């Protein structure tokens, strides 16, 4: 998304576009008028307005924002979701540690997200926010027969693991145990029981349904949930497109924030609104904005975050960071610190120490509680 149409507007400048700013629940902090409901939660949120990832490629930018590192030869680093699944997940939790609620056309498990942490901590995608396939027991299989099958599988797995124990075989065995538990928790995927006014509050469109599912998953004990809202690649008609897209984003995001706060979950739930980069301050001849990793913003809220804080700033027309420059590594450290972890500690992979976050960076103290 465009930082200029969201968290760091520049009205009245050569780059600002047609939209004005609005006040928020934090006196003196203004954001774009396209986010009136989000603005009411600014006292719970923090903005980082000084990001320079120096990367304008979609794939490379996504890697930086998910892992806190640039692409390196010979090693891949785990995504934030996999890190959280490893650090915060419980063996007894039947829900996957890293759940990705995706738009239509995606699904399955992406083992690459977990990198050296192993496939057990990979992301599991819920295509269009729908429950995993085959979550209901076949109608011709009784509960007693299912229990006998499960007992037989356990005995076979235990015999196999005595001879050939690897991360892959353990993940395979764990996936069966998790699937059995997941079938018992299938109610968290069914939003039909939600009151109609709640569905209206989130919105009846895809992103609204997906945010409602995210709330249900978190309430049901999910460790990490990522919800994707796409596609903000506005090389053409940036302003009309952001009217539409942010109209979809604003209401369900505010509803999610409301529900997390009212249920007492926000203080233990870190919320991150990120993209792989921002959009160019310069408006192109097609009234669009192109890729821009030089000066852009993210929003944070919840666990470990200082509500109302703003870190850094860009210059008058948003073409460069003027103060407090940070990059993806600083953000990754900040997420870990907010959750109570030290990013300078190591993973040990085959006795090789690998820092959890880039040791050349540090958390952004100004946005931490």
Shape: globular
Number of domains: 2
- The percent range for strand residues is 15-25%
Spans of at least 5 consecutive residues with low confidence: none
Strand sequence of the main sheet, in spatial order? 8-11-3-12
> From the alpha-carbon coordinates, what is the Rg to the nearest angstrom?
22 Å
Instruction: Please estimate the helix content.
Output: 25-40%
- Can you give the mean pLDDT? 92
Helix count from the secondary structure assignment: 9
**Oligomeric status:** single chain
Number of strands: 16
**Helix/strand order, N-terminal first:** EEHEHHEEEHHHHEHEEEEEEEHEE
Give the biggest sheet: 4 strands, mixed
CA distance, first residue to last residue: 27 Å
Structural class: alpha+beta
Notes on the structure:
The protein is an alpha+beta fold. The chain has 2 domains: 1-56 and 231-369, no CATH class; 88-228, no CATH class. Helix content is 32%, strand content 16%. It has 9 helices and 16 strands. It has helices at 36-39, 58-67, 80-88, 143-161, 167-184, 196-202, 206-219, 238-262, 328-338, and strands at 21-23, 30-32, 45-51, 98-102, 108-110, 123-127, 224-227, 270-273, 278-279, 291-292, 296-302, 310-311, 313-314, 321-323, 346-349, 352-355. The strands form 6 sheets. A 4-stranded mixed beta sheet has the order 8-11-3-12, covered by helices on one side. The protein has a 4-stranded mixed beta sheet with strand order 5-6-4-7. It has a two-stranded antiparallel sheet with strand order 1-2. Helix 2 (58-67) packs parallel to helix 9 (328-338). The longest helix has 25 residues, at 238-262. It is globular. The chain starts with 20 loop residues before the first strand and ends in a 14-residue tail after the last strand. The mean pLDDT is 92.
